[in-house]
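Structure request: Conidiation-specific protein 6, Agrocybe pediades.
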Amino acid sequence: MPSTQKNPGNVAGGLKATLHNDRVSDEAKQSAQERLDRMGGPAQGNVLDDDLDDDEEFEAPAGTGAKSGGRSSQVLGGYKATLKNPRVSDEAKQHAQDVLDKSEA
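Returned structure:
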């Protein structure tokens, strides 16, 4: 039986996706932005990778087990997977390698 409660983080994520989708009308984007504003802006814990600079460190949410002040092991694992994925461009693989090299320093 599906729950009638919606997860605010998922709702905010969907609204953010609407804002960045080129196939969505300006009217729909405006509506999504208004709903996000009413929700209090971006939901905590939903940070797009584009929002982090390569040199920027993040503050790990409490109780996640992630290291504070650095990249989590899941993020670094994602970059390692990028290196082995045949569907990833050489440019993306180089970026992933650069991030991994910086994390070891």
